What we know:
The chain is an alpha+beta fold. Helices cover 47% and strands 18% of the residues. Strands 1, 2, 3 and 4 form a four-stranded antiparallel β-sheet that branches. Helix 4 packs antiparallel against helix 5.
Amino acid sequence: MKKNIFSVIALAISIINLILTILIVFTLVPSAVKTNQLIAKVAENIDLEITSNPDFYTNNNMIPLTDIEVYNLEELTINLKPEPNDTRNHYTLVKIGLSINKEHPDYSKLRPKLETHQSYITEIVIEEFSKYSSSNIMDNIANIKEEILKRVQEKFESNFIVEVSTGKFLID
């Protein structure tokens, strides 16, 4: 008789557990879906990237400092975009450094080409800096470096260059 009572109690507890599980699923899942939709809308409005970034591990933040080599370009004097009501020419003096991942598979093949293709890199740097005037260049320095990096990576058809940095930066 005791076995039957325990069996009935175990069955009753299992049924109660099943009912509570169903209740939780039908109450929490819809609210979780709505929360995810809200987060996606907020992130979209403030331009956050929700999906995984395939280039995340090529970012120099994930590469040990010992695996990064800096290739410095010559110091460049670049004409800036003229201001609307300014007759004076403005210039920037900039020294650019390219951070290169020494452990990248393309490093041994493409590293020697940096010297021979330095004029292409210089042209990209000049073009990107020339898009901005002296009044808005400082606000856009991150965009400039990002565009230089993107264009240089496209030029070399590789992402062995992981960052562009400005060592010296003067505006006149």
